[in-house]
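Mods, move this if it's the wrong board.
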Amino acid sequence: MGSNRSTLFVDVLVPLAVAGSYTYRVPNELNEQVVVGKRVVVQFGKTRTYTALIQRIHNSPPPLYEAKYILSVIDNAPIVQPWQFEFWQWMSSYYMCNMGEVMNAALPAALKLASETRVILNRQTAINHAELTDKEYLIVEALEIQPELSISDIAAILGQKVVFPYVKSLFDKQIVLVSEEIEERYKPKMEVFITLNPFYDDKTNLAHLFDTLSRAPKQSDLVLAYIQLAKTHSEITKKALLEKAEISAAVLTTLIEKELFIAEEREISRFKTYADLPINFILSPAQQAAFDAIKLSITTKKTALLHGVTSSGKTQVYIKLIEDCIANGQQALYLLPEIALTTQIISRLRKHFGNTIGIYHSKFSDNERAETWKNVLNGTLKVILGARSAIFLPFSNLGLIIVDEEHEQSYKQQEPAPRYHARDAALYLGNQLVVPVVLGSATPALETYFNATQGKYTLVTLTERYGGVQTPEIIVADIQQETKKKTMQSHFTSVLLQYITTTLEHKEQIILFQNRRGYAPSLSCNLCAYTPRCINCDVSLTYHKFSNKLQCHYCGYQQKPIDTCPACGHAHINTKNFGTEKVEDELQLLLPKARIARMDLDTTRKKTSTSTLIHNFENRETDILVGTQMVAKGLDFDNLTLTCILNADSLLNFPDFRAYERSFQLMLQVAGRAGRREKRGSVIIQTYQPLHPIIQFVVNANYNEFYTSEISERKQFNYPPYYRLIQLTLKHKDLDTINAAAQQLATVLRSHLGKAVLGPEFPAVNRIRNLYHKVILIKVEKGAPLQAIKSQLSNSILLLNKEKAFKSVWVQPDVDPY
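Not the wrong board. Structure tokens:
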């Protein structure tokens, strides 16, 4: 790293939404410790200290300011790979955000340290309260109740910003201790392991021990429990021993003090361990052909699209590809769009890859994510199964990226920046590291299929279901006709109820899909049509029966439900439309003996909720699963023979150019859940528009016809894949300000980009969390200089924010927004 005499400087990234990196000076004594990818502690601003990442080491002082010294080096070895900085740089540039924001998204929270001055009482000093001023007394009083306070806590207690003089005064009087400390938030999980003293390996000594303990039955039982456990376990934890012996910890403590047992505390993994199980399947001829075609595309460095109908056995092809990757000593990344999917697929992959597989997604704690990060870095984990954030892991030797269900919109990050799409980021990463990428879907995104037809990707198809399973029959139930005939019961057509009854009689299972959670999307007055609305957002409140609350799904605002109309005093308040909670409720009334469960955002908030729901359904402890999009994606149940889309029209009538594409994908995915074994499944689509072309494409399961119809529309109206979209969303609490700012920005952009600029317009929900939203859309033709256009947008936004009137208007760019 250079001799101790040379003056080194480091460019560091801080995990904040600030542009570029910052240069700091390295104290001579730390010269040997600074390495690219290590974390250092730096002072940023006047008072805050942050963990920053070393991006570059050099000898050039910054020209415009005097560099501060770094305070310390945290890591013994780099925690970020050099290629990651390049990847983050691309993401920052492509998605129009700062590198600090990408770093923030990439690193687990436990590896990003936060600091504040901590104040604690000095227990060595006797406090004379009479000597304290009023403000000092308040601080001491708070510290007597609470062991430590941060500067911001003290500011809140005193109700003022400047508190350092009072803290300094107390410090001078030796009443408090102050430490500007930065804490390592990652804490390893520790476990106590118990071993019998080796002296008792000798049978004579062991027999003598039992004689000695004959008057202490509990101690004797504990030794006996240990010996029984040792027959089946190579290592015995304190917890397991006490559970086996059903004895208190005090007995064990006594035997440890007597040195009969040895206790050792060791760091353990937070994840369950699984024994390696043999691979026990052979690919079908169709799967083998697909596998061979993908292997060929890998040798030509081409991305492969595996277009396989639902239940064609894509997962088995992926497993064989991963096996090859591991055999070459490399790591594999398997991306899935939903955490719900990882629950089921992980149990399958564990059978094949044992403890070399890890999971990475947002339901894991900070410590668990940090542990996975370190295990990927050191190569312990060979396969990572994860949601979109797994793209950021520090692979040391990546050899394969699989993006399953690549069409899913959950791969797109909405908030906060970077607003990246994991599939597109995976394609860039594959190109950057020269790693093959395999995309898989039964209903590929139009852009992906377009690229395959243009020869950019290798198209590999699987047209038959695995094991010759029949495709399900699809029945369209006409809600309009049944309403006229008065054969509807609640939200269920007579066709659906008849199928449900038959399915339950055959002891088979059912999934019902409804794309809204809650009990009823809105309440409405029968007389004046008043609807309760959120006080912070321009949207009606959703009624949740379980909590008996009206709730906003945008900001979380809640209020009690109304029984009389506040506008006209009328007492008849009706629920309008229906959500998953109402479906569950009303189905239980119609089918009191059926075991019904619900899977939506409200029922899966806990870390283990999703896996419990799936486990119960797999074990046939649930007859009917009602759910939102979660139930439509990639789940595989052998006894599921009936699926239903309760209201297809809510999907088709969505105001979005992708509405038809998403409706087709979702309906075909829901259909694909049914009859995945020897029994043929049935799918019921309830709709007011049975002859709608999209529904007909679904009935015929004809992706190519759908693609041909939809791609011509996209070309005609200048939408992807022929054009790129960039959306600018302006946000401000004042309506007049946002209108003026949006108009000005659009005018400036039009002077540079002409007809490519559309808007400004209010979106469907134009006020969220008390901020008005206005949208400008830029359509960029494929082949146009995208980077130059982005630079123009960034400059125009910068100029807008420099104007005093629009300084507080927030402009949020979103590249490829839908």
